[in-house]
Amino acid sequence: MAIKPTIKNAGLSFRGSLTPIAKSKVKKIVQHHMAHQTWDIHDVHKFHRDSNGWAGIGYNFWIGFDGTIYQGRGFNVGAHVLNHNHYTLGVGYQGDFTKQKMTDAQLQAGAALNAWLVSECNLKASDIIGHKDLASTACPGKNFRMTELRNLVSGGKVSEPKPSNPTGDAFIRQVQTWLCNYGYKVEVDGLKGPETRKGIVKVYQNELNKQFGAGLAVDGIPGPKTYAAAVNVRRGAKGNLTRVLQALLYMSGHNPGPFDGAFGDGTEKAVRAFQKAKGLGADGIAGKNTWKALL
User: Fold this and answer.
1) Superfamily, domain 8-155
2) Which pLDDT tens digit goes with each residue over 191-218?
3) Residue ranges of the Peptidoglycan recognition protein family domain (predicted)?
């Protein structure tokens, strides 16, 4: 009998009540990737709940890049394969495995989790399948290590996974990935280096040009013209200027919460904290003086 791995509670808040699923009813364990290169369990939960209109995250369990296993819906009916949720459990993995590699830590954690689920539900390693086996999709992606996963489970050589410690900061990696997708290539290393800051400033200058016709040189170097072109960004704002604000706040040591481009409670609190630290009026609005201090 497989040992239950450590499964963390992510503190997710679901809309309404979930429907339990009996272990005896489970026939398949379905593996998924999120098809997004950076989203963590909280990003996925928010998307499934607020954009899809579901109760919350559709997966029963979730595995991060570092191999940490989280409970999603647990042993409740999921929302991960249309028309097949009543007899399956879904395991979601952070990343887009059509473009990214599945990490060793994810493989080991996936083997430990699936081995335990197989044992609990009286299944076999062959009952571990991909989303694409039940629906017309590429999920869990060409880089998902399905053969290795099944071999580890069937071979019984599974031990408690030890989450890895990837280099750098996860938030900064999200910022760097966003910069690359925007068109400013930087190394995705999770480090608060000068090239990352320069890329953030380039986006800021470009967005001021696009949205307000500022006519700035997009060189990543803040100067008098960039400072003068600043606009007020406040609670309720959404989009790339808010992402720039969130990135600069984090670079300055003030965590705005999710890097989502939405100016909510977390971003406002971070702006106020930054303003207070810099001796500015702490009104929670990113105006000219706040932008200048951040840049």
Assistant:
1) Peptidoglycan recognition protein-like (3.40.80.10)
2) 888 889 999 999 999 999 999 999 999 9
3) 4-135
